[in-house]
Amino acid sequence: MALDPPPLLDDHERMRAVSHPARWRVLQELWDGHTLTSTDAAKLVGLTPSAMSYHLRRLAALGLVEQASSDDGRARPWRASTDGLSMTGQPDATLGGMMMQNFAADIGRTLATPPPSEGDPRPWPANFTHRRVRMSRAEAKALHARICALLEEVEAAGQARFERGEEADGEGLPVYRYDTFWASGAAAEDAPGEPRS
Predict the structure, then answer these.
(1) pLDDT at residue 194, rounded to an integer
(2) Which residues cross the membrane (predicted)?
(3) Rounded CA gap, 111 and 151, in Å?
(4) Is 170 left (phi over 0), alpha (psi -120 to 50) or beta?
(5) φ, ψ for residue 81 (rounded to 5)?
(6) DSSP state of 62
(7) Which residues contact 55 (CB under 8 A, 6 or more apart)?
């Protein structure tokens, strides 16, 4: 079943809700294709099940998670209702710092994953690219749109192969995570009242 495209969250309050470290960590697990009960999610982030139930309901209200079916009818697992999200808008300094801490924690977990051993067909855990590109605001928006369109095209092809039970290159279909963050370098350089060297 193909997932709906990520919701566009441009509301500051929604951005704040998603930036909560416990919610963000649980979202990462759910976006990886796992299902979690409130108890499972609570253990993952060190909260009580009742507190985690509140957070999951909040994520459900944002359209990011939903209840999954249960074999025994007693457990109430949750699953992702999207395969990611896209946020626009400019967070304030506090909110921006919280979001960057979440991203840094994600990167730290990835870097702590050992590389695959010889003969292991799994991909290397991560690839990192940092580039500085001179372009106009319109060109930056167009580039972001092209990247998103390409990701949707690749995801659709991978999802179709998965649904047909096919493997890619005889090695299965690993799931990659792709995060993008882009911002104008001029924002810091041209900050009012800041000297430029």
Answers:
(1) 40
(2) none
(3) 23
(4) left
(5) -100, 0
(6) T
(7) 20, 22, 23, 26, 41, 47
User: CA triplet 99, 102, 106: central angle to 5 degrees?
Assistant: 140
Amino acid residing at 122: R
DSSP 116-183: PPTT--SPPS-----------HHHHHHHHHHHHHHHHHHHHHHHHHHHHT--STTS--PPP-------
The pLDDT of residue 82 is above 50? yes
* Count of beta carbons in the 10 Å neighbourhood of residue 128: 7
Residue 100: both structure tokens together: 């960057």
Look over the chain and give the mean of its residue pLDDT values, rounded to a whole number.
Answer: 76
The model's pLDDT over 139-193, given as tens digits with 9 standing for 90+, comes to 988 988 898 899 889 888 887 887 887 765 555 666 677 777 666 655 444 444 4
> What is the spatial distance between Cα 10 and Cα 31, in angstroms, rounded to a whole number?
20
Global pTM exceeds 0.70: no
